[in-house]
Design a protein that fits this description.
By secondary structure, this protein is of the alpha/beta class. It is 38% helix and 20% strand. The protein is built from nine helices and six strands, in the order H-H-E-H-E-H-E-H-E-H-H-E-H-H-E. The chain has a six-stranded mixed sheet with strand order 2-1-3-4-6-5. Helix 2 packs parallel to helix 9. It is globular. The mean pLDDT is 94.
């Protein structure tokens, strides 16, 4: 990712509506569907500045990996111990057969060989382990945001399912989320494209709007996996060895 993406993450990951609400949606999703053992061993790959680590720590003992040195320093401070730097898809030095949960939250789209990356994660799972995956949805929504984030692709449910199955995994509870605000996001992408003014700036909006978007997005914590969701900005699934 471009340096500015990590800088914005560090500046806004505790206040931006998207980060704050997404953590709660994913926490509820894991609570309902992951069936993790008590004090699970958890690994987040591509943890960025570590803003998801306190949420993941609700489920057990957390370790993390981040290849960007500046973001890794921030994440290490938040975690209270060193964050690793093993890259995907190889994951050199990462223990095999060890983790009850691996979280890759908007990470797989950054890897050229997504199947190889998912296969490497599968090899690091303990028996009964699962991989929590989120990826950006809809190829037609490609924008300057994807460019500065160095994305290789955006996914459909079908293309994500194919990659997961090719890696020897099977997806469970595969669903869209960030669906309630999807019409606004889609309209903004289309309008920017038509006007020739696509913008990669993902800084938070004004405080009242930021609070409103957070409340709306947080509602999905009661819905994702329970009821069919309309198209969303993101796809989520739990993948497990098949």
């Amino acid at each position: 990712m471009d340096r500015i993406v990590y800088d914005r993450m560090a500046a806004h990951d505790s206040t931006h509506w998207w980060y704050r609400a997404r953590r709660e949606v994913l926490s509820d999703y894991l609570t309902r569907y992951a069936a993790l053992p008590r004090d699970a061993r958890v690994l987040e790959i591509g943890c960025g500045t570590g803003h998801n680590l306190p949420m993941l720590a609700r489920f057990g003992s957390v370790e993390a990996i981040e290849i960007d040195s500046a973001a890794r320093g921030i994440a290490s401070q938040r975690l209270g111990r060193a964050v690793g730097d093993a890259p995907l898809p190889e994951l050199p030095g990462v223990e095999r057969g060890a983790y009850d949960l691996i979280a890759v939250l908007d990470v797989v789209e950054h890897i050229a060989d997504d199947v190889a990356a998912l296969s490497a994660m599968r090899e690091r799972l303990a028996p009964g382990g699962k991989i929590l995956i989120t990826v950006p949805a809809h190829r037609w929504m490609w924008s300057a945001h994807d460019v500065v984030n160095h994305h290789h692709r955006r996914y459909s449910k079908a293309t994500l399912r194919r990659a997961i199955e090719a890696a020897g995994l099977r997806p469970r509870k595969l669903a869209y989320f960030n669906s309630l605000l999807f019409p606004l996001a889609a309209a903004a992408r289309v309008a920017g494209r038509v006007a020739g003014r696509e913008d990669s700036d993902d800084s938070p909006p004004a405080k009242p709007l930021n609070a409103l978007f957070e409340r709306v997005f947080r509602l999905e914590r009661h819905l994702v996996g329970r009821v069919p969701m309309g198209p969303g900005v993101t796809i989520v699934t739990l993948a497990e060895p098949g």
